[in-house]
Amino acid sequence: MKFEELTDEEWELIEPLLPPPAPTGRPRADDRKTLNSIFYVLTTGCKWMDMPGEYGSYVTAWRRFRRWQEEGVWDAM
């Protein structure tokens, strides 16, 4: 299956389903970029550590994937 990044229309539907950033602490990585990285891994089947660097840290993507799973984000989508 060919991977395609989220369109603006898709992002507008998904963004409200994501938990807000913490009010304090380090700013988190961009949600849209991170979500694209997660979808890249899930679509292509590559290992997290092999995802393209343009999507940021694979550790961040994996952690966000797990956190959103625990928080029910995937079910909401």
UniProtKB/TrEMBL annotation:
Q: Which InterPro entries match?
A: IS402-like_dom, Transposase_6_like
Domain Insertion element IS402-like per the UniProt entry, residue ranges: 6-77
Signal peptide, first to last residue: none
On the tree of life, the source organism's domain of life is Archaea
**Listed name of the protein:** Transposase
Identify the species of origin: Candidatus Syntropharchaeum caldarium
